[in-house]
Amino acid sequence: MENTNAHTNETKGTFDPKTIAIIAYLTIIGLVIAFILNNDKRDEFATFHIKQSLGLVLISLGLFIIGMIPILGWILSFLGSIFLLYLWIMGLINAVNYKTKPVPILGHQFEKWFANI
Predict the structure, then answer these.
(1) Computed from CA positions of residues 40, 32, 57, 89, in that sequence, does the dihedral angle turn out positive or negative?
(2) I need a labelling partner for 116 at 20 to 30 A (CA). Which of 13, 34, 54, 110 fits?
């Protein structure tokens, strides 16, 4: 009987909050999937990293728009993308290490912007 109970828990699709937090940093599709997976449980750790990832996605969208401006926009977009890559790596490392540390510089702002999520 114990084997059937263990199998039933696995088939329910419950995910560890750490896994949801890591998925949130894997592309926009991963962010949507993490949001859906966390919708039932509303785990604080996963929600924290979903907010951080959502902020990074919005910043990347802004950099994409700036990148449409010739020359100066290209330079700003390139430099911003390098900075965004650094923020993304820091967020992913924090999720892997099970830390609720915001990404540098913008992380606290993301928490304010997305307080309702």
Answers:
(1) positive
(2) 13
The 10 Å Cβ neighbour count of residue 20 is: 24
Closest to 95 measured CA to CA, from 5, 1, 23, 12:
23
For residues 108 and 57, what is the distance between their CA atoms, to the nearest angstrom?
Answer: 15
Average pLDDT of 28-39? Answer: 94
User: How many domains does the chain divide into?
Assistant: 1
What's the rounded mean pLDDT across residues 106-116? 93
In order of 45, 56, 94, the CA distances from 87 in angstroms are 18, 8, 11
Pull the structure tokens for residue 31. Answer: 């962010």
Q: What is the pTM of this model?
A: 0.83
Say which DSSP state 103 is in: P
Query: What's the domain range around 57?
Result: 2-113
At residue 95's C-alpha, the angle toward residues 103 and 40, to 5°, is: 110
Please write the tens of the pLDDT for every residue from 57-69: 999 999 999 999 9
**Count of positions (residues) in the chain:** 117
